[in-house]
Structures are given as C-alpha cells and as structure tokens.
C-alpha cells in the first residue's frame, strides 16, 4: 500500500503521518485476492476466504448526531466516534492487519467511510462499523451507533422478474 499513513491505514506496522509514495508490503498479508479501502482503513481478502483489515477503527461523528455515548474522552467537543470498522470486536486502531470475526468464508468485501460490508459464501451480507445512516443495519440510523462485530443484514433474495420490471424491457 502507499499514500497517507497517519492512522496506520497502510498496514506496515507504523502510523507515521505523511505520504508514502512507493508501495510497501502489508505486514503478514500473503495470497490476497482483493483489496478494498475506506476513508482511513483498508482490508484484504485472502484466498482462504478470511478477511483482514487495518488502520482507523473510528472516525468523526457527524455534527447532526449526538455521539456522546460513543466518543473518546470527556470533552463534549471531541467528535471522534468509536466505530469498529475493522470488524475484530474492538474499537482500537490497528497498524497491522486484524482478522474480521466472521463465521464463514468471504467472497467479496467493500469498505466505506466508517464501515465495511462483506458477502459470505452463503450469500449472506454482513456489515460492521458506524451506523450513522443505516449503512450497517439496513435501517436509517435506528439504532444509530457502532457495531464492532459483523452483523448479518436481512436482504431480500434476488428476484430477476422484479429486476426486469424496474429496469424495463430489453435492458
């Protein structure tokens, strides 16, 4: 990985601010089949179906929300929310990859700003991290908060007939 590394998002064992213009190996990652990056965290899918993430495990709470129950410190102006987008059950940042706590192999994953989602071999969708807009639970901020462990979403099964109806004929 290369780029900014103030929060360990390069996964090279350091959190040195500044830019790293040349690629560096991610500590302990071998046989990766895919990589996805969020705002300040990164994840790699390994050929055995495991998912590993590193970097920031929190972020800035939107001003429109009261995040006092999930922010660091006692200062009410501190807006750093503890999200858990690394998916290892913690809200601590990590400068090295940590394994995402999933009960099944992962087929694909995508990292968002303060959350991450993955598709398991069963087809089930899992998401974790901050749920400020329903991106983790599938419900619009209810409950708002953070989910440091993957939770399954209830996604209706794909129906090709409905897809064709909404896209129109011949599309």
Could you explain the architecture of this structure?
With 171 residues, this protein is mainly β. The protein is 5% helix and 34% strand. The chain has one helix and twelve strands; from the N terminus they run ββββββββββββα. It has one helix spanning 160-167; strands at 3-4, 19-20, 32-37, 41-46, 51-55, 58-60, 80-82, 94-99, 106-111, 115-120, 125-130, 146-152. The protein has a four-stranded antiparallel β-sheet with strand order 3-4-5-8, with no helix packed on it. A hairpin with a 3-residue loop joins β9 and β10 (115-120). The longest helix has 8 residues, at 160-167. It is globular, with a radius of gyration of 17 Å.
Can you lay out the helices and strands and say which pair or pack?
Blueprint: E1 3-4, E2 19-20, E3 32-37, E4 41-46, E5 51-55, E6 58-60, E7 80-82, E8 94-99, E9 106-111, E10 115-120, E11 125-130, E12 146-152, H1 160-167
Antiparallel strand pairs: 1-2, 3-4, 4-5, 5-8, 6-7, 9-10, 10-11, 11-12
């Amino acid at each position: 990985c290369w780029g900014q590394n103030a929060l360990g998002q390069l996964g090279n064992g350091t959190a040195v601010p500044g830019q790293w213009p040349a690629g560096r190996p991610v500590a302990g990652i071998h046989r990766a089949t895919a990589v996805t990056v969020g705002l300040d965290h990164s994840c790699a899918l390994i050929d055995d179906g495991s998912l590993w993430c590193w970097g920031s495990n929190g972020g800035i709470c939107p001003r429109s929300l009261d995040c006092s129950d999930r922010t660091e410190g006692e200062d009410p102006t501190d807006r750093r929310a503890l999200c858990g987008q690394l998916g290892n059950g913690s809200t601590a940042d990590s400068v090295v990859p940590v394994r995402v706590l999933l009960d099944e192999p992962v087929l694909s994953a995508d990292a968002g700003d303060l959350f991450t989602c993955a598709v398991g071999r069963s087809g089930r969708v899992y998401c974790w991290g901050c749920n400020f807009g329903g991106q983790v639970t599938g419900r619009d901020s209810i409950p708002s908060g953070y989910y440091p462990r993957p939770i399954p979403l209830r996604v209706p099964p794909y129906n090709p007939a409905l897809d064709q109806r909404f896209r129109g004929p011949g599309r």
